[in-house]
Design goal:
- This protein is α/β, with parallel strands linked by helices.
- The protein has one domain: 3-Layer(aba) Sandwich (Rossmann fold).
- 31% of the residues lie in helices and 23% in strands.
- The chain is built from twelve helices and twelve strands.
- α6 crosses α7.
- Bound molecules: iron/sulfur cluster.
- The site of iron/sulfur cluster (SF4) has 13 residues, from loops.
- The site of iron/sulfur cluster has 13 residues, from loops.
């Protein structure tokens, strides 16, 4: 395929270019490979191509949902954008500034602009620190506030995310799952970031709590103009929170469009299969036919030739096995990688 991402032309990035401000985050041809080592000499015998040439952009105040089965590279992509994992190739641009090659030290001022919320708030919160100190830690690290001022700012964040300021002295184990995720959100907000990457941020929560946390995230977005990359395998949640949705399969994007288009008129067989498995209140309203997705996601060490989805695609043709489909704009803002579209 024309690397999904080696051309930003016509991608949402170019739509954004029409506006004065650059996208908050833009990735072009992003690749993250992990070496596979074997033998006593630990020789590199191959690579896990977790992210393999991905291009997209997220504008100010926008939520891009990123969906796909587990193991497709979604989380690795989120961490690579934050440079918690170094990219193998490609370009990451934060508000017009190329941050791809910045060292850990050079990244420091930019780190404030990008924060992450993890799936499991319990394991991401230090059990030995009070939640007040956890939320206030970024102020200390970035030398922004201390003492009374820090306490006041943490108390303000607590109130904003629906926690009581007097809970600042408590420890993570004293909170419920939903409250712990609110602590995670307060910490992510502390430095007033532009972009928050949510890595399955509500997947571990009960459904009723999920709705509360999602509503909180949406309210915060409206107030602060935050941008989100919302990673999830739950298409119903993604439909609720996202403006646009990107679908990922084995390290590559296979479809990207605004939410309404993806959910009402999916063009890629993989998107179609994912959607057909989502329970909806009125099945006739959305689902024309049920597409069964058989088998597991193949290995990212040795992905299938041609179209990576060909081993599971119900519409596979001969050329799908040898020829990689182009990443094409089939209608304005709607991108698909499939020979049949
Ligand atoms: Fe299926 Fe072929 Fe399209 Fe791939 S290119 S999704 S195998 S029809």
């Amino acid at each position: 395929m024309a690397d999904a991402g080696h051309s930003a032309v016509g991608t949402p990035a170019s739509d954004a270019a029409a506006s004065v401000r650059p996208p908050v985050i833009e990735v072009e041809g992003l690749k993250t490979y992990f070496p596979v080592k074997k033998g006593v000499l630990s020789r590199t015998v191959g690579y896990v191509r977790a992210v393999d040439g991905v291009t997209f952009a997220i504008n100010e105040g926008e939520t891009l949902g990123l969906v796909g089965e587990s193991g497709c590279g979604k989380s690795t992509m989120g961490k690579t954008i934050l440079k918690l994992i170094e990219p193998t190739a490609g370009k990451i641009t934060l508000e017009g500034k190329d941050i791809t090659a910045l060292s850990r030290r050079e990244m420091r001022p930019y780190r404030r602009e990008m924060q992450i919320i993890f799936q499991d708030p319990y394991s991401s919160l230090n059990p030995r620190m009070s939640v007040g100190n956890i939320v206030g830690e970024p102020f200390v690290i970035h030398k922004l506030a201390k003492g009374r001022e820090k306490e006041d700012r943490v108390a303000e964040l607590f109130s904003r995310v629906g926690l009581r300021p007097e809970q600042m002295r408590s420890y993570p184990h004293e909170f419920s799952g939903g409250q712990r995720q609110r602590v995670g959100i307060a910490r992510a907000l502390a430095l007033n970031p532009k972009l928050i990457i949510g890595d399955e941020p509500v997947s571990a929560l009960d459904v009723s709590i999920q709705a509360q946390v999602i509503n909180l995230l949406m309210d915060l977005q409206a107030e602060r103009g935050l941008s989100y990359l919302f990673i999830s395998h739950d298409l119903a949640v993604v439909e609720h929170i996202s403006h646009r949705v990107a679908v990922m399969y084995l390290g590559k994007l296979v479809e990207l469009a605004d939410k309404k288009t993806i959910y009402s008129n999916p063009q890629h067989p993989y998107t179609e299969a994912l959607l057909s498995a989502v329970p909806v209140p009125d099945p006739a309203a959305r689902r024309k036919k049920r597409v069964l997705l058989e088998g597991d996601v193949p290995s990212a060490i040795d992905p299938p030739s041609g179209c990576r989805f060909h081993t599971r695609c119900p519409y596979v043709e001969a050329r799908c096995r040898t020829e990689e489909p182009q990443w094409r704009e089939v209608e304005k803002g709607h991108w698909v990688a499939c020979h049949l579209r």
